[in-house]
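Example record

One chain of 564 residues, shown exactly as stored in the release files.
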Amino acid sequence: MKIKALFVAPYAAMENLIEECRREETEIDIHIKVGNLQEGVVLAKKAEAQGFDVIISRGGTAKLIGEAVGIPVIDVHVSGYDMLRVFTLANDLPRKKAIVGFPTITLGAKAIIDLLDIPIDIFTIDDENETEPLLSRLKLEGYQLIIGDVVTFETASRLGLLGILLQSGREAIFDSFKEAKMVARWMLNNKLEIERLKAVLHVTAKDFMLLSPNGDIVYEQWTTFPSRPIKEIQLILNANQNDASGKETVYIKDNNGETLKLIKSKLSTTESSYYICQFSQLKINPSSEENMKVNVLSPPLIIHQSEAMNACLTMIDRCLSHTGFILNGKRGTEKELIAQYIHYHKTHGNGLYASIKALDLLDISLEKIDKDIKTIYIHSIDFLDEGLSDELWRKIVSIKGIGITTIMGMIEPQPSWEVYSDDISRIYIPSLAERKEDLRELVTSFILHFNQTLGTSAIKIKEEGLALLAKYDWPGNVEELKALLKDAVLTEKGYVIEKELIESLLNQKRPVDVGISSDFLMGTLEDIEKKIIEKVLEEEEYNQTKAAKRLNINRSTLWRKLKG
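Predicted structure tokens for this chain:
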């Protein structure tokens, strides 16, 4: 009889790799689930009740599962190969770096770092509760990049540091399979306790958790939600009470990316104190929800090694008291990321952020904008004609009047607007060509992003390939760079992106000379002129302002020639 095993992957990118290894394993019936820490414990308990023989997991999640279940738990170790891959990737990031983890990670890491003379400092912890205080101290000491397991990675990201997840590779996963084959079945000694807990949950109040001060879930009940809607319990504990009644209301993301309202209050007994956390779905007005994308934001990572990007962020920091911002920059310069930066630093993470198309904003009445929304980012303004642009400006002025920060993203400010008034901050977003000093870190960050979200193999780009990227003009700016690197990492099956692959992808961007067809020149001079105008409009994505500027005519003349 096959051993029945549940593999609890603490991060999503690990799932694909486990699936590949599972195909080569014939002696174990392996089921795969993704869940970190307490979420992983819930998955493991369910598996135990369903008759599984062994649980396989990693790091802090494996440790928690081992304390919660009565069947064997196999811990997937981090191999030297895994460390070498991550250290190679981190070595290209020009930041002060540290690896933070339990002795099982840091002892092996020290040997590799010393051998290869890699400039990464090592800090050892003995308990996961030491992670946040340590990372807070390291941040004050100037560390910017933290390498570690899932707890370290998530804590670093929440504190605004760049985290790199130390992932387990194929070698470590196959080792865990071998260890699982050697274990015997254990008695299900806590089955009765689990059944009692289930019976109690059916008669308690809905949608709440009772937490101990250190984050242990003492009790929970979900009726509106099919399961626990959040992963990060520690995030709840770190929020401070700011209400006279001792209650605090915050907005968080659930496991599906939807916004929840959380009301946290403190309950004291003779023996201890607890936190009661009540959850409810945020009821955004349906008429605005159709058009607005409402989010709760973490601190966005802005790469700013270049003088141009530093100047941009410095201007923003000096103008955070303003309630209106105009982000002036070319397409692809990540204006929305800058808008999120403004929102987070202006509100300190409190309140909701919404983004909306300019045309959709015109259809929303002010009373239908939810009071929880503190910032609105308005994009696609350049697609409006002049009449609608003026109407939009009047709407924006009205929104500012009800205390909401408005951030407008556009290529060029509308000349008819009061863009030079004292309460409007004008922020220029540099193009990628103006911030080439950021290229190396942008490339490495995108490779890291795809490595940890898509499970891609590439962790480095050859210097010759990076030099080719530096020579390219990037008309699509940062978004074009990100798209090209996604194509590169999906194509590359090894660990290093070669120059030839970059060269091939850049060659695909060369324009094709289609010439002028004879049909295009048919008709009168007026007909040919109209065809030219329509062609330019199409190339400028029907932006009349840009088309008129390119043709060296004003918008009124452009409109008259199209109607003529």
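Notes: Residues 184-192, 241-245 have pLDDT under 50 and may be disordered.
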